Amino acid sequence: YILWCKYTKNIFSQDEEIKEYMKKWVNKDGQTVIVSRDLSWVDPHDDTYQILVEKAKNAELTIILQEPKEYIRELEIEGARIYDYSHLNFTPKNRFTFIHYGRSNPRLAIGYQDGDVRKIREYEKSGTIEYSLAEDLCNLLKEVSKNESSSTKTQ
Question: Side by side, which strands form the sheet with 81-84?
Answer without folding.
Answer: 11-12, 117-124, 107-114, 95-101, 31-36, 61-65, 81-84, 146-147
